[in-house]
Amino acid sequence: MKTKILLSLAVYSFLFTACSKTDVNPPEIISDEEIAMSNDDIEVLYNGDFMDAAHPTSGMVQVYEENGVKKLRFINFKTDSGPDLRVYLAENDGASNFIEVSKKVENGTLEYTLPADADLSKQNHVLIWCKLFKVNFGTAVLSMPQ
């Protein structure tokens, strides 16, 4: 009897932790001081400004490379909260041929590590996407700096 109870508890514990939502590629919060210090040291590959779609969305976005890894930086980013928001890279604002960058969206100045298979020559739209309702909250179109 005791063994059955322990086994049941182990199975329930496993199922509970296996089904819990985990952050995939959570953002790293960046301070204003870090931004000011790093702006001289990085070469911006792409940049853009967020525009409203279904919800007010604002801020800037930059892509730069650090030690062979591309980073997506949001500066003074702000959008409404919503269920199941994601950061996507896509070919258009309708999420065609998208890659999921993160399952976590936060306001502020922050960075995400881009997936190695991101093709910024094609997937040049940064979307704040509500996966649950298939709604674009806001978009930034990446372009090379002038």
Question: How would you describe this structure to a colleague?
Answer:
With 146 residues, this protein is an alpha+beta fold. It is 16% helix and 42% strand. It contains 2 helices and 9 strands. It has helices at 2-18, 32-38; strands spanning 28-29, 44-52, 57-66, 69-79, 85-90, 99-102, 108-113, 125-130, 135-141. β8 and β9 (135-141) form a beta hairpin.
Mean pLDDT: 86
Structural class assignment: alpha+beta
Question: Major sheet: size, sense and barrel closure?
Answer: 9 strands, antiparallel
Shape summary? globular
The number of E-state strands comes to 9
Helix content: 10-25%
Number of helices: 2
Distance between the termini: 73 Å
Low-confidence runs of at least 5 consecutive residues: 6-21
Instruction: Write the H/E string, N to C.
Output: HEHEEEEEEEE
* Radius of gyration from CA coordinates: 19 Å
Q: Taking strands numbered 1, 2, ... along the chain, how are they ordered across the largest sheet?
A: 1-7-4-3-2-9-8-5-6
β-strand amount: 35-45%
List the helices and strands and how they pair.
Blueprint: H1 2-18, E1 28-29, H2 32-38, E2 44-52, E3 57-66, E4 69-79, E5 85-90, E6 99-102, E7 108-113, E8 125-130, E9 135-141
Antiparallel strand pairs: 1-7, 2-3, 2-9, 3-4, 4-7, 5-6, 5-8, 8-9
Q: What is the gist of this entry?
A:
This protein is an alpha+beta fold and 146 residues long.
Task: Please give a handful of descriptors for the protein shown.
9-stranded antiparallel sheet, alpha+beta, 146 residues
